[in-house]
Amino acid sequence: MVTVDRIADPWGSRTPYGPGECWPTRVDTFLADGLTEDEVDRWVQSATILHSNGDGLDIAVKDGRMVGVRGRAVDRVNHGRLDPKDLFGWQANHSADRLTTPLIRRGGKLVETDWDTAMDAVAGRTKQLLDERGPSSVGFYTTGQLFLEEYYTLALIGHGGIGTNHMDGNTRLCTATAAAALKQSFGCDGQPGSYADIDHADVIALYGHNMAETQTVTWTRILDRLAGPNPPAVICVDPRRTPVARAATVHLAPRPGTNVVLMNGLLHEILRHGWIDEKYIEDNTVGFDELRTQLGDYPLQKAAEICDVPIEDLREAARLLGTAERLLSTVLQGFYQSHQATAAAVQVNNIHLVRGMLGKPGCGILQMNGQPTAQNTRECGADGDLPAFRNWANESHVEDLARVWNIDPMRIPHYTAPTHLMQMMRYVEDGSIRFLYVSGTNPAVSLPELRRVREILSQDRLFLVVQDIFLSETAQLADVVLPAATWGEKTGTFTNTDRTVHLSEKAVEPPGRARPDLDIFVDYARRLDLRDKDGEPLVKWSTPEEAFEAWKECTAGRPCDYTGITYEKLRGGSGIQWPCNANAPDGTERLYENGKFWAAPDYCENYGRDMVTGAPVEPTEYRALNPFGKAIIKAGEYLPPHETVSDEYPYLLTTGRTLYHFHTRTKTGRAPQLQRAAPEVWVEMSKSDAEQHEWSEGDLLRIDTPRGHVTARLRISGIRTGVLFLPFHYGYWDTPAGHEPALEGRAANELTFTDWDPASKQPLFKSGAARVERVAVVDDGPSAAPTTTASAPVAGTVPATSGGRDAETTETFDEGGPR
Ligand SMILES: Nc1nc2c(c(=O)[nH]1)N[C@H]1C(S)=C(S)[C@@H](COP(=O)(O)OP(=O)(O)OC[C@H]3O[C@@H](n4cnc5c(=O)[nH]c(N)nc54)[C@H](O)[C@@H]3O)O[C@H]1N2
Ligand SMILES: Nc1nc2c(c(=O)[nH]1)N[C@H]1C(S)=C(S)[C@@H](COP(=O)(O)OP(=O)(O)OC[C@H]3O[C@@H](n4cnc5c(=O)[nH]c(N)nc54)[C@H](O)[C@@H]3O)O[C@H]1N2
Ligand SMILES: [Mo]
């Protein structure tokens, strides 16, 4: 056993291994207040909730309180390891400022109330609007952070009970493009690959994915391969010098907004060399000829110029991709939150399709998720899909769903695709949506163009319900605030990026009168008196396990088949990958083995969309294109971004994450070790840009776009010249009293604009142009940005980020220690 400061060393000790070997176990433990494992009363099984990895862990309980966490050695995902956010973030559950009682707005102020009063107000306003204005006046905006059972219940209430088409999740901001890209290429959502592909791959390509900071345990698996015999080559596509870039064999740092041309250039080169599997293409795909024609316009030289990347680096990346024997690709927000998000992400799928690299060990595609339970938001239909990957444009799928729910098919709106969030916000702005029920998300910090968002959410005519665990920036604008119990205080299941389903058991009681989200939704349905066609209650369950059993019925015969999973089966061991049914009782590691896809016209989840206009492909058109349900190769034409640099706004602005914080920091900002590691907002700029202005590390800068401004201290980092980066974690809940949000200007989304990818409708957080000026020379040292991450300073004089005594954790190894 060794002791490690996991703030100073976020990835912990190496356990090197070679290709095809099993990733060694390393069990990470953190117990608060110097407790030892012997002093813990109970360990309660769960999985991690601050990213999409789904690392198995046990929660330590003493005297009815959480006191720590320990990774689960038996879990297929993490083999015992934990991320710093998971080691320390649970402490937020015990914060003194948790919401413990419902709040209602009276005389302009939020005041405490009881559950009956609060829920009667919520259900009462819903009924009133349904009578006066119909179902389209009611909207739901949920998250990727609740449990499967909760989403399925919400989807039933919204789609089946109230009959509104206005239901989406913050997954729209997060993984809408992952889903869209999978639907475009394979006719259906669901990751083809498995995390275990890391054990086999000889080339790993990460596209716009800072995995080292955002899926740290999966990155540890790659680091362990890199430290072992016959390590894989790593390709990184990111304009910043992230820890991934630092470890990469080839780092391509394109100009933001040029991903499609980069991908087309790489594909052009792959085709030019004939690095393709013609038999695979012939047997298993449609659309290759169009791709070949399209790629004629994208010689490598053009990509090098538009992306401003050295052509030798592009050539080397293409060679690695083209000659890989086992290629693993991962894609995330650097692609998904750009204009042309879907077009870019689909080109990654195309590389695998033309090379026949799918459904075999090491040949995975991970169109990554971000949030821990985003996969379930999508599967359950709480986000602009129908449950269990049913196709809203296929009448027989809607009828089948109505059968499961025992309602008339006409009750389920399907005249058009479910409304996406950005459109819902427009409807709220216009006043056609008058009731918005927000659960588990904080749009007043996480949506683009915050000044507009605040205006929309504070309108008098809008009835805003916010179900959260803290009085977030959004909750402060609500008419009713519902206090939720969260992870560790309630039971449920959730599914990670590689389709692994975990059970998370209740470990402790929620604070005060807070209730699990499931109980609140069920209560809401009861008060609305929603009924099926026999007059029975529409929502027929009240416990998580009952909800799970109902969900299983809904998934029978669909791609995400859960029928072989039970709570009992999830207890004790590892998570299980869907599909899991009578044919695959232990789950399914990889999809699309032997070129079998879920893309048949009668079965597929979606017919796809035009990637330039976003128009849905018509069923007849799809049937003609893909009668036998093969994989679909879709070419993408490069279009320049809508907003780009000008004399007035000469910098490209991009935003994203740091290792130590999760989103709007409602949890990580309340965990002292994490908050200390990244206490305030900063802005990253390259050394040459800073030198040109004669600005120094730590200077206070003001960043402006036409939407607003942010002030932040300068970190001179390895970012691409001409690009600025802001972390988006810093909202206003912990700014000192008396500071006006708009004046304070520290949330990155004050700057971002209202625009989205046409196919996935995902907003563009990684584009835009900005101007920057210095407002003060600060000579009390460097900015507070972490030094261990992408924000590493170029100057060697900045003190290293470290955690200190209360950040010490332990690591326990298989056979006596790290090799
Ligand atoms: N520590 C931490 N981990 C998290 C989260 C968190 O908040 N904190 N959130 C979770 C969630 S919900 C998500 S969605 C994921 C997100 O995980 P990531 O996508 O890995 O995180 P981001 O920082 O948003 O963006 C990734 C990278 O995109 C790069 N980028 C910016 N513009 C471009 C571009 O035009 N082209 C390319 N190729 N790259 C570009 C940025 O420099 C950045 O390093 O992380 C999950 N894990
Ligand atoms: N500029 C910029 N903006 C971005 C991004 C970016 O990269 N750049 N990334 C986008 C992405 S990928 C994402 S995922 C979003 C995230 O944006 P949000 O979803 O708005 O961020 P969170 O802070 O995770 O908000 C979750 C809320 O749910 C609450 N909560 C936690 N657990 C529970 C629970 O069990 N029940 C209930 N009811 N509530 C709970 C938390 O207290 C918090 O208020 O941000 C997006 N916005
Ligand atoms: Mo996300």
Structure report:
Its EC number is 1.7.99.4. It holds the Pfam family Molydop_binding. The protein has 819 residues and is an alpha/beta fold. It folds into four domains: 2-96, Phosphorylase Kinase, domain 1 (2-Layer Sandwich), CATH 3.30.200; 103-174 and 373-468 and 478-559, 3-Layer(aba) Sandwich (Rossmann fold), CATH 3.40.50.740; 176-368 and 598-632, Dimethylsulfoxide Reductase, domain 2, CATH 3.40.228.10; 651-786, Beta Barrel (Barwin-like endoglucanases), CATH 2.40.40.20. Helices cover 28% and strands 18% of the residues. The strands form six sheets. Strands 6, 7, 8, 9, 16, 17, 18 and 21 form an eight-stranded mixed sheet that branches. Strands 1-30-2-5-4-3 form a six-stranded antiparallel sheet. The chain has a six-stranded mixed sheet with strand order 25-27-26-29-24-28. A hairpin with a 4-residue loop joins strand 19 and strand 20 (500-504). Helix 2 packs across helix 20 (517-528). The longest helix has 19 residues, at 115-133. 61% of the residues are buried. The structure holds ligand MGD (2 copies) and molybdenum atom (MO).
